[in-house]
């Protein structure tokens, strides 16, 4: 996913000027993994948006199983509205806006699919939901139930990176 470069006076300038604790707090809303946020913050100052994304991409491949599970704990089930007024909850509600909560058959199928997924893999089903309908998210969930745990963990790590990148764009633009 390509994002146009931003000059130092734009959103990247704001990131460069934030006190480190505030920058880390904003980065943790993108991916709740302190090491990831710290590694990005350590790479400041950023020349442009692409450099921020490169820093995020460089920190993400080394996510440990423990870090992935930590990040998963911060995500609500697909089809369930995140509660809370924090930034991450607000983004989650927006990202899952394609799930029609009034469709009782869909919400039932998602709930049952989530439960089956969690029994199989021991963690919440995660997918980058932005721009996808509830039916698409359910179809993806069902297709992933046949994966072995190792394959599924690789997919989850990739989905976390996608979500983090989308959210990072919001931090930059914010």
TrEMBL record:
Region Disordered, residue ranges: 72-105
What EC numbers are recorded for this enzyme?
A: 4.1.1.97
Name its pathway. Answer: Purine metabolism; urate degradation; (S)-allantoin from urate: step 3/3
Any one GO molecular-function label of the UniProt entry: 2-oxo-4-hydroxy-4-carboxy-5-ureidoimidazoline decarboxylase activity
Lyase listed as a keyword: yes
Q: Which UniProt keywords apply?
A: Decarboxylase, Lyase, Purine metabolism
Pfam families per the record?
OHCU_decarbox (PF09349)
Determine the domain of life of the protein's source: Bacteria
Q: Which SUPFAM superfamilies match?
A: UraD-Like (SSF158694)
Give start and end of each Oxo-4-hydroxy-4-carboxy-5-ureidoimidazoline decarboxylase domain: 16-169
Q: Which reaction does it catalyse?
A: 5-hydroxy-2-oxo-4-ureido-2,5-dihydro-1H-imidazole-5-carboxylate + H(+) = (S)-allantoin + CO2
Lyase listed as a keyword: yes
Known InterPro entries for this protein? OHCU_decarboxylase, OHCU_decarboxylase-2, OHCU_decarboxylase_sf
Skewed-composition ranges (Polar residues): 85-99
Q: Which NCBIfam families match?
A: PRK13798.1, UraD_2
This chain belongs to the protein called 2-oxo-4-hydroxy-4-carboxy-5-ureidoimidazoline decarboxylase
Q: Give the source species.
A: Saccharopolyspora rosea
Taxon lineage: Bacteria, Bacillati, Actinomycetota, Actinomycetes, Pseudonocardiales
